[in-house]
Amino acid sequence: MPVKQLKERCWVLGVDDDRDFDPHFGSEDKARSYARDSEPAALPTIKALDEPCWIAVCDGPGGGPFGVCDEEFEDDEGGGHGPSEAVTVEWITAYQWKIAADGRAFGSCCTDSCPAGAVAAAPVVAQIPGQLTLDGQKVAG
Ligand SMILES: [Zn+2]
Ligand SMILES: [Zn+2]
């Protein structure tokens, strides 16, 4: 699965939820050592997120041990963790990532490898009635 949920919840600094760059850490220790060095004011507010994040990994061909690119999605601010599958898919496609009909994701690094004519706009995701879908259609009922 190109867009997948992490197994563990990330730790964040918790100082300001609206900041452009909100680093995520794989453990409380890592968050604390970062805060000690860079943002001591955040030490008292460090917290784990309620849910594990979603990330996107490129399925293009690559030179790694498994023959795939494995590039992890990052936006301009260096963030790449979404709160849900739908949000993450919308986010990465805004950054020119493509999702093939078979569900593989191709990053901007590997867009050329995405099978032509087999591109899905986005996987089918559960919609809340009344919300716009990703292709702008209103959901019935
Ligand atoms: Zn995260
Ligand atoms: Zn790639």
Provide structural commentary.
There is one protein chain. With 141 residues, the chain is α+β, with helices and mostly antiparallel strands. It has one domain (3-113). Helix content is 15%, strand content 13%. The strands form 3 sheets. It has a 3-stranded antiparallel sheet. It has a 3-stranded antiparallel sheet with strand order 7-6-8, with no helix packed on it. Strand 6 (98-100) and strand 7 (105-106) form a beta hairpin. Bound molecules: zinc ion (ZN) (2 copies). One zinc ion (ZN) binds at residues 10, 24, 53, 81. The site of one zinc ion (ZN) has 4 residues, from loops.
Helix vs. strand class: alpha+beta
How much helicity do the residues have?
A: 10-25%
**Average predicted local confidence, pLDDT:** 82
SSE pattern: EEEHEEHEEE
Numbering strands along the chain, what is their spatial order in the largest sheet?
A: 3-2-4
Number of domains: 1
Beta strand count: 8
Radius of gyration of CA atoms, rounded to a whole number: 17 Å
By DSSP (H or I, 4+ residues per run), the number of helices equals 2
Tell me the distance between the termini. Answer: 30 Å
Largest sheet: 3 strands, antiparallel
Q: Bound compounds, please?
A: zinc ion
The unreliable regions are none
Portion in strands: 5-15%
Basic shape: elongated
